[in-house]
Amino acid sequence: MKYTFDFLELPERAPKPRTSGLSMVHDPGLSAQQLGQTIESIEPFLDILKFRSLNPRLYPESLTFEKIEICKQNDIKVMLGGNVGEMAWFQGKWDMLVDYAATNGWDTFEISASYAPLSDSDKMSMIERCQARGLEVVYEWGLKKPTKPLDPEEAARDIERMLSAGVRFVIVEEGEIDLLIGKDGAGPHGDRLSALLDLLGFDRVMMEATDMKQLAWLLKTFGPDVSIGNLSFDQIMDLEPLRHGIGRLVDFNSYDKYLGGDGSR
In the chain, at which residue ranges do the beta strands (DSSP E only) sit? Predict the structure, then answer.
């Protein structure tokens, strides 16, 4: 592929399939035509599409399957959200859901316990069941409404247990991120998030973040290889340039190699 201005150098990052620097979007319920048109310009930047919560239950099955096929044609993994699994668990249909996902094209199955009171034994059995059906598993860690900031070492121990069971990566719940750094990226507990990533590494953790100031904080603090989920399609278009050091939110750091510390040549 020949890129526009390909004679100009920019900070590069790994192409798909990536192990870090992943970007995951929530599909808000686009039509197949809308999805295809949107993906045309962002395919290289988008790693995972997650159907938002139980929303697909409100749409024709044929539409969902068409959208899954569009993603597969564009090397985008399709994730089944944890809320769907929790609802199926409450209704005694969790195994049915796993079989349905594996049979109908989902690549990735998210296991969460935001509402369902899952034991550690339940979670381990669920991971094994998904893996047996050929599904990649991710686990969502944390509370939607935490009352205190996470303890990095305690969180790392919990997350390591899931990773040791074969989970591809762990998603840190948006509520936990909000409590640490705030929606504006100015929260007082960013050091705890830094400590957590120091313990676990970039290729095993994804942060849920939905505000552009949060995204800017994550990129300026951790660099372009931090994985971020719960994005909108519009945010993908804004995020990828930031990953390459383009934009005010990251202080146009693509110029850093050419400028002095005071912005002079």
Answer: 23-27, 48-51, 77-80, 108-111, 136-141, 169-172, 205-208, 227-231
Looking only at the bridges linking them, the beta strands covering 48-51 and 136-141 are unpaired
Residue 46: exposure state from Cβ atoms within 10 A (0-12, 13-18, ≥19)? buried
- The answer to whether 223 and 254 are in contact (CB under 8 A) is no
Provide CB contacts within 8 A for 89, sequence distance 6+.
Answer: 116, 118
pLDDT in tens, 117-162: 999 999 999 999 999 999 999 999 999 899 999 999 999 999 999 9
Break the chain into its structural domains and give their ranges. 23-255
- Distance separating the N- and C-terminal Cα atoms of the chain: 33
Q: Locate 249 and state its tokens.
A: 């939110």
Q: Which residues does 170 contact at the CB level (< 8 Å), separation at least 6?
A: 138, 139, 140, 141, 159, 162, 163, 200, 204, 205, 206
Catalogue the E-assigned strands of 192-254: 205-208, 227-231
The whole-number pLDDT of residue 264 equals 47
The reported pLDDT for the residue numbered 12 is 87
* 26: β partners: 50
Nearby residues of 203 by Cβ (< 8 Å), 6 or more positions away? 19, 20, 169, 227
Is 227 buried (19+), middle (13-18) or exposed (0-12) by CB count in 10 A?
Answer: buried
Neighbours of 164 (CB within 10 A): 9
Between CA 203 and CA 225 the distance in angstroms is 8
Task: Give the whole-number percent of the chain exceeding pLDDT 70.
Answer: 98
- What's domain 23-255's superfamily in CATH? Aldolase class I (3.20.20.70)
